[in-house]
Amino acid sequence: MNDSDYARQIQQMVEFIKQEANEKANEIRVAADEEFNIQKLNLVEAEKIKIRKDYERKSSQIEVKKKIEYSTQLNAARLRLLQARDDFLNNTLAAATEGLSSLVKNQNGYKKLLMELIVQAALKLNSDDVVVRCRKEDLSACKNAVEDVKAQWSKLVTSMPLPKLALDEKQYLAPSKNDGPTCAGGVIVFAENGRIQCNNTLDARLVSTYKACLPEMRAKLF
Questions:
Q1: What is the pairing mode between strands 129-133 and 196-201?
Q2: C-alpha distance from residue 156 to each of 63, 107, 118, 132, 160 (Å)
Q3: Which of 146, 120, 152, 133 is nearest to 190 (CA)?
Q4: How many C-beta atoms lie closer than 10 Å to residue 170's C-beta?
Q5: pTM higher than 0.85
Q6: Are 185 and 109 contacting, i.e. CB atoms less than 8 angstroms apart?
Q7: How does pLDDT run across 85-134, given as a tens digit for each residue?
Q8: How far is CA 29 from CA 14, 17, 37, 39, 168, in A?
């Protein structure tokens, strides 16, 4: 084998080594590109997940805030409605209380009403001895009412005999106009030396009627 043959073989070996190197380099470059793309995709996906979670967290916070605001506004509206209902009912009671004065101004009608209130209280107490207390301004009308009760008891009541009726002229109910407690009229009847009583004042009867009618009033008005 001459020198030219050796040179040709050497050249072939060099070319083969170059080709192998190039192929290996290409494989490394492709692998690196693939690894880069995979890492890039992983980073992008991780960032997407992070952004999605952050969006979901903020959306959840906004939704919770909206629900809290809605609940707060709803409760405030309910409280305003309840307050408006109470104000209306209280104003209705106040107007009815003011209207009681018209009953008292009708002397004949008021005297009859006092008699009926005394009879009702005496029946409720079912005692042999009762004391009637009224406002000082009603003393004259109440005296007449007591006398009417005594005179008409047998016609009005058949279930029990006439009790001993006395009018309290030492202590009186509160007046209609006063800086402190007031009373629109009516009587309080005592028995058993004052240990038991029946409050038949106009104020007490109105409040009792008001409470009894309150459910029906709420149902019809609201």
A1: unpaired
A2: 72, 21, 12, 18, 10
A3: 133
A4: 5
A5: no
A6: no
A7: 888 888 887 888 788 888 888 888 999 999 999 999 999 999 999 999 99
A8: 22, 18, 12, 15, 118
Give the 3-state secondary structure of the chain: CCHHHHHHHHHHHHHHHHHHHHHHHHHHHHHHHHHHHHHHHHHHHHHHHHHHHHHHHHHHHHHHHHHHHHHHHHHHHHHHHHHHHHHHHHHHHHHHHHHHHHHHHCHHHHHHHHHHHHHHHHHHHCCCEEEEECEHHHHHHHHHHHHHHHHHHHHHCCCCCCCEEEECCCCCECCCCCCCCCCCCEEEEEECCCCEEEEEEHHHHHHHHHHHHHHHHHHHHC
> For residue 118, what are its two tokens?
């005394």
